[in-house]
């Protein structure tokens, strides 16, 4: 395959363009093939997911914050799309070079393959088989590249007239069998390197026969379509093999200790966040590019580290334990003032404190590190998990098994702490250690090791416009595990006036509030603040989300029009 003798032939810009098309189509083929192989080795072994995972784990905190600020819960889709665009650009470059020498194609593809293999093999939970999708991608991309480069119309490479008779490297008719390498008249070196005779472009003027051009594009299009079919088929098969079907067969045990009944005055107006957030509306934040698929039958939780007795609990063991049911409002530390990375659900699970008591934390074990099957970790103060609050190893969310993306089969939920220090999804390990000895996932990325939720309040309605008259201003306020004592509203920087609280089942959830506002035409500014049960007023000082949660008063500008 050494084409070096022909590199003196000037390659016209047009040829490079064909090569770029071939390169992109080849990369697509590689990824499609990889998705098929990943059906067997698991979706997290697919190169895009593996490389994306490495990127997620290594981006500077500021970039991650910007991504969440920009794309919100779609940050993962944006990352995958970005990765694909970068790969497409690189593949186009490799393809453009490959028309000079196939060595570029081989080298470029191998380089990408190595990146994929390295990424897959170093993901938490990986085994040797995780190299296979990337290796298959290399084989697929090389085969597609080899095939497509041979199809590049000869005219475009300014081959000597002898080659250009039909304006194409492929004799008419020989292309009639699609999908077969038909460029028999053109030895690979001819089309790839510009023609065996050399002498460069002085033959027929290098215009490409439009028919040949169409044929090439059609072939490349077919290759991309085939790749897409393989990719989608792979994804589809992976989903069929996902745990959603297993999840559908899980029956939750009834609670031994049920959640309190809901107060009757909830959900006072339509535009306020509902007191209980539906599972499908519940925000989702995690680093998992491919949602971990954990079969409860093979799930286990190991409690170890600085404990008197190491414990391993299976799904069956867990289900035998008395279940507690509680409403707990979970919040993300990345939630901006006024943001919606917060939700309230009814969780069913086993008290974490009971499990810790059984294991017996040793002196100095001030941190409980929870580890997910995908290697993510969070660190929770041991004393918080033992202080009597309803920290749960949860299996149910609003009466259903945990949705897969919310941690099926088992996650942790701790009232009063941000999710990044407590709410481990797909949990499989609990290690007693100390804060001095171990930094959990987000800590070296610039976030605080401790993450108590800060008191906040939010205006849900109106957000922009209102009609003059009595307008019900409404929203939510939270101070988990402390409780909200008071919510106040200020109009146009006037005096603070108390809002009506609509009740909550415990201090571990948010509460809804309403405030009747006599709105007059014009532009107005509404602000809200909460006071917690200790009497502490929510701070006006504005702080960004990093390192330990945003503060400040939520403010909305409302344009009031005459009725
Ligand atoms: N395994 C795992 N668990 C995780 C995370 C993660 O990235 N991986 N993110 C945490 C963060 S930052 C938050 S805010 C909550 C969000 O839980 P939810 O997606 O169910 O709302 O999950 C926590 N648990
Ligand atoms: Mo979070």
TrEMBL record:
Q: Which InterPro entries match?
A: Ig_E-set, OxRdtase_Mopterin-bd_dom, OxRdtase_Mopterin-bd_sf
The transmembrane segments are 78-97, 102-122, 128-149, 216-237
Q: Which superkingdom, per the lineage? A: Bacteria
Composition bias, Low complexity: 164-194
- Residue segments, region Disordered: 158-209
Q: Is Transmembrane set as a keyword in this record?
A: yes
- Any one GO MF annotation of this record: sulfite oxidase activity
Which portions of the chain have biased composition (kind: Gly residues)?
195-204
* Residue ranges of every copy of the Oxidoreductase molybdopterin-binding domain listed in the record: 289-442
Q: Which residues form a coiled coil?
A: none
- Which UniProt keyword terms apply here? Membrane, Transmembrane, Transmembrane helix
Q: Which Pfam families match?
A: Oxidored_molyb
Q: Which GO terms describe its biological process?
A: sulfur compound metabolic process
Enumerate the PANTHER family for this protein: SULFITE OXIDASE, MITOCHONDRIAL (PTHR19372:SF7), SULFITE REDUCTASE (PTHR19372)
What protein name does the entry list? DMSO/TMAO reductase YedYZ molybdopterin-dependent catalytic subunit
In its UniProt entry, the species of origin is given as Catenuloplanes niger
């Amino acid at each position: 395959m050494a084409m070096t003798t022909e590199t003196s032939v000037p390659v016209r810009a047009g040829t490079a363009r064909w090569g770029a098309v071939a390169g992109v189509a080849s990369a697509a083929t590689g990824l499609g093939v990889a998705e098929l192989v990943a059906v067997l080795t698991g979706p997290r072994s697919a190169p895009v997911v593996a490389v994306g995972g490495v990127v997620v784990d290594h981006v500077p905190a500021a970039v991650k914050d910007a991504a969440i600020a920009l794309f919100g819960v779609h940050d993962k889709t944006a990352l995958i799309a970005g990765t694909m665009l970068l790969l497409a650009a690189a593949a186009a470059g490799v393809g453009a070079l490959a028309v000079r020498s196939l060595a570029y194609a081989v080298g470029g593809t191998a380089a990408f393959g190595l990146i994929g293999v390295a990424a897959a093999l170093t993901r938490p939970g990986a085994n040797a088989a995780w190299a296979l999708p990337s290796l298959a991608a290399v084989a697929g991309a090389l085969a597609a590249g080899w095939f497509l480069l041979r199809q590049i119309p000869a005219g475009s490479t300014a081959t000597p007239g002898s080659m250009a008779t039909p304006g194409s490297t492929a004799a008419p008719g020989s292309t009639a069998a699609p999908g077969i390498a038909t460029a028999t008249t053109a030895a690979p070196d001819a089309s790839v390197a510009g023609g065996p005779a050399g002498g460069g472009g002085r033959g027929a003027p290098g215009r490409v026969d439009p028919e040949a051009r169409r044929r090439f594009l059609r072939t490349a299009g077919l290759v991309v379509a085939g790749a897409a079919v393989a990719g989608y088929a792979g994804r589809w098969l992976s989903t069929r093999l996902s745990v959603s079907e297993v999840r559908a067969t899980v029956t939750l045990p009834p609670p031994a200790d049920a959640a309190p009944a809901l107060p009757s005055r909830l959900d006072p107006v339509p535009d306020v966040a509902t007191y209980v957030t539906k599972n499908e509306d519940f925000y989702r934040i995690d680093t998992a590019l491919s949602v971990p698929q954990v079969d409860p039958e093979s799930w286990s939780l190991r409690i170890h580290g600085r404990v008197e007795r190491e414990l391993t609990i299976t799904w069956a063991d867990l289900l035998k334990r008395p279940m507690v049911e509680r409403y707990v409002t979970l919040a993300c530390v990345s939630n901006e003032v006024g943001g919606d990375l917060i939700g309230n659900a009814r969780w069913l699970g086993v008290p974490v404190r009971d499990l810790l008591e059984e294991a017996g934390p040793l002196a100095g074990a001030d941190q409980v590190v929870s580890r997910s099957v995908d290697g993510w970790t969070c660190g929770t103060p041991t004393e918080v998990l033992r202080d009597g609050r309803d920290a749960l190893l949860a299996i149910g969310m609003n009466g259903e098994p945990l949705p897969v993306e919310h941690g099926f089969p088992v996650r942790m939920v701790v009232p009063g702490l941000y999710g990044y220090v407590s709410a481990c999804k797909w949990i499989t390990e609990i290690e007693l250690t100390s804060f001095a000895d171990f930094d959990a996932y987000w800590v070296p990325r610039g976030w605080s090791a401790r993450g108590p939720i800060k008191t906040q309040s939010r205006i849900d309605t109106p957000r922009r416009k209102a009609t003059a008259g009595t307008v019900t201003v409404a929203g939510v306020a939270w101070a988990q595990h402390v409780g909200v004592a008071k919510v106040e509203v200020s109009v146009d920087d006037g005096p603070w006036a108390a809002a009506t609280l609509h009740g909550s089942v415990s201090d571990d959830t948010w509460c809804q509030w309403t405030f009747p506002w006599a709105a007059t035409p014009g532009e107005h500014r509404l602000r809200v603040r909460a006071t917690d049960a200790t009497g502490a007023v929510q701070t006006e000082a504005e702080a960004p989300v990093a390192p330990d949660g945003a503060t400040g008063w939520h403010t909305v500008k409302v344009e009031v029009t005459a009725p």
